[in-house]
Design brief:
This protein has 3 helices and 2 strands; from the N terminus they run E-E-H-H-H. It is mostly helical. Strand 1 and strand 2 form a beta hairpin.
Amino acid sequence: MMRIGSHGTNSTHSTNLSNESYLPNWANWTNEPEKFANLMLTLIFKENYLLDNLIRSLENKFVTEGGYSENLTKRRLDEKFKNYRK
């Protein structure tokens, strides 16, 4: 048994790591050059997919919510005119 704790808390729970049959055997993937190359290509495609989704999401957020400077200017002007109206 291994004790695994959550970062920043005092709680811990036990985890049984003796049954590792569900884990992939990475040695088989890294010993043969063709399998290793296929693994690297697969990981690169996955990374590109995730990065494309992140970029698309950030673009949509920028279009709908504006950029940092734009929002900062808006907040400053709102605060300025709020004090001006008093």
